[in-house]
Amino acid sequence: MLKRLKNNYFLLVTTFIVLYVFFNLMSGQRGLISHFEKKQILNKLKKEEILLINQIQDLDFRNSLLSDNLDLDYVETLIRERFILGKKNEKIYIIKDEN
Asked: What pTM, to 2 d.p., does this model score?
């Protein structure tokens, strides 16, 4: 048996090296599977970044409405939404969304 191993030594070493390289290409931190997982995480984070940027822009716009040049219409809208207040003889309807 030792004689057969010596004869096929190159074949055995080559086979193990090929298997090692193949498994490291497929798995591991830099493998193909990990690459696709990281790509999916990156896409998710990009979408979340866009959402957060839109929220920041919306808050900046609202903040600008409450700056030195006070927009009274916007203040009235805020008071109506937050405190559910209305003018005299005005009916207020609250519509609850099922979602």
From this structure: 0.51
